[in-house]
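>> received
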Amino acid sequence: MAHKKGEGKVKNNRESHSKRLGIKIFGGQKAIAGNIIVRQRGTKHFPGDGVGIGKDHTLYAVTDGVVVFKKRKDDKSYVYVKPVGEA
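>> returned
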């Protein structure tokens, strides 16, 4: 016989909720000013023209346009929002 009761509900609830990170608007898709483009931990993707960065490293569109992902010579990924007439 067991000497302790099996209180699984206390021991098993340490899992954290998923944070829903990742790319929300992909390259080639339209973005409206204020739309979240990438949710990330740290700067995996860096902001370019037409993109702002939040205190939690979230990238968001500052202007309306089409989202573009590019890598520069420093091998870092940059996110741009090109205005519709320019893209």
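>> The longest strand covers residues 65-71.
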